[in-house]
Design a protein that fits this description.
Blueprint: H1 17-27, H2 32-48, E1 74-75, E2 81-83, H3 86-107, H4 111-119, H5 133-149, H6 153-169, H7 199-217, H8 221-237, H9 251-262, H10 265-276, H11 307-324, H12 327-343, H13 375-392, H14 395-409, E3 427-428, H15 449-457, E4 466-469, E5 472-475, E6 481-487, E7 490-498, E8 505-512, E9 516-523, E10 538-540, E11 549-552, E12 555-556, E13 560-562, E14 565-572, E15 576-581, E16 586-591, E17 601-606, E18 609-614, E19 633-638, E20 645-653, E21 659-666, E22 678-679, E23 682-683
Parallel strand pairs: 5-9
Antiparallel strand pairs: 1-4, 2-6, 3-22, 4-5, 6-7, 7-8, 8-15, 9-14, 10-16, 11-12, 11-15, 13-14, 16-17, 17-18, 17-23, 18-21, 18-22, 19-20, 20-21
Helix pairs in contact: 1-2, 3-5, 3-15, 4-6, 5-7, 5-15, 7-8, 7-9, 9-10, 10-11, 11-12, 11-13, 13-14
Amino acid sequence: MKSYHIDEISFGHFFTEAMYRSWYHQQGVGKAYLSDFMSQKSKIQNKTNAPAPILDAIRPNKISEAGKAPRHASAVPFNMVSITDHFWTARITINRNKTIPSVLEKCREGRISNFINTSEDNQTEFKGIFYDDSDLYKVLEGIAYSLQSNPDDALESIVDNIIGHIAGAQWDDGYLNTYYSLPKKQHDARWHDLKNKHELYCAGHLIEAAIAYYQATGKTTLINIATKFASYITEKFGHHSESGVPGHQEIEIALIKLSRLKKNTKYLKLAKKFLDQRGHHDERESYGEYAQDHLPITEQTEAVGHAVRAVYMYCAMTDIAMMTNAQTYIQALDALWDNVVTKKMYITGGIGARHALESFGDNYELPNKYAYSETCAAIGSILWNHRMFQLKRESRYIDIIETTLYNAFSVSTAPCGEAFFYVNPLESDGEFLFNKNAITHQPWFDCSCCPTNIVRFVPTIGEYIFAQYKDELYVNLYIASKSQIEIHGQKIGITIETKYPKDGEIKINIAPESTKQFKIKLRIPSWTKETPLPGDLYKYLNPTPSEVVININDQPIQYQIVNGYAVIDRIWHAGDTINIDIPMPIQQVISHEKVQDNHDKVALQRGPIVYCAESIDNAIPIPKIDLGDNTILKTEYQSDLLTGNYIISGQVASADTKENQFIAIPYYAWAHRGKGKMAVWLKRSTT
């Protein structure tokens, strides 16, 4: 086992118990972590004469004081969840074995060389775009998350070498940005264009990567670099310093994480200052709606501007709302969430209607062919909705996460793991070059924020399955997995067995150390009701009742639904099982009448999966497929299609009135068989 020399790490960023537990859990040595943690904690307490930290560095719920009950739900960390699911295990493995090496290699073609040239004082020209440092940081963050679940000495060694160059590129005062370091340090140019040059955005991704890598390895070089830079930023922009607002939000999230890790409120205060200065223009220019700078954040009620910037800002707002219970923040967040979900979200969970400025459109502006629906925005939406769930403990936020995960996010990566969609439209005519001048997945982009964001997101999928609040265990996503949580000092094992989303049969095994009473809350998905998503933006044409049946130890039970969860409060014994049967009929979906692009159109959904018609499967031209209200549709599992998928098929009318075979496949699987035409929303005849 590795030795991390914990006694040499300064107080303020040594291992928490959660981090020890994670490491020893990975090594399969059971309870050994506890005695070692207590020993190391004692060493550092004696050395620093300071109280030992008890906070997990990135869990918002852990900010409460020792001994006090948490105010909000906390997720079971992804590195404490072992995924066995057929759908996600393959994607996590491909991300680790294919996507990470591929994207890391792409970063060598400029991004890494910028750090090498800076650290070696080569005085060569900067290569790439001014925000390219952030891509490397996101890749390092993703590698760190992967290492937490799958240690890899060779990969860790590569990262350590890169970190050495990052250290060499840092200025004496703590500043770090290669764009202003090549061909030589440009002292007078830095910080003069916060609106456009993304210095603070890059700094935020550095901080997040540093925290992740420290948690994964215990090594302190990168976290020391990030902390030095963050302290310099705090001195420059802190409470009594000059005003400044990031053009692209992100550092706010990172500063909040660093505040938790260091237990230093100066970083939290700066994050809040950055947020609260938006919309105030007495001492600076306005960035306008594009950067959510048109109004103070507590007065914003409509999602506008660049979609990724917006949801990153909403994430930071939600973090602070959880930590401070700021009601003005919560009220604004509620209004913004309602606006996005009921007026600006695609049925796939995608957000961002316009290619122009990668932005939200007007209310109900949801074009299909020209949809932007950026991959980064899908990830940002998941991050935000997860925080909103923790804040409110309501299933509707997980409903958005599930829809986005299986549709708007899953479509973004080709099966090989080495090509990507930056843009995720709901229709393609085979001619419009929607994906940055292409109509297929691409291995890289000049602006490669999406591939690098995918790298850092995929390893964390397990984070969204389980959550805990006091004596309540939330089962949010039905992903085959196993984990162990602790309720009132007792460990509870939980295992999910299912083929979901292929079908809705789910078995959950409960294994408390001893007989224990607590609540299990099982999410009842919104798609089992009359709408595929919360709100009235979409609804089923002819809702098919989906009664969710729950059995405990093979005996049916009656249950109450509270905030979207079936609540089971009982005394649990080792070996207890819960069986859930969630019907997955084919549902025809129609849009709110104000969505002009979907007039007289219908979409298909089964469970959480949105379907589309692709030209390779259909002899009828896609625009001429006429899906009548009374069309008889059926599902069929085809093991040889796209590694195994349920398709939807039926006989539909075409323009010449002849009956023709119709096939729809999961939206996430389109474009896997070459170029072609595709549509989610199909012509609907009512006769």
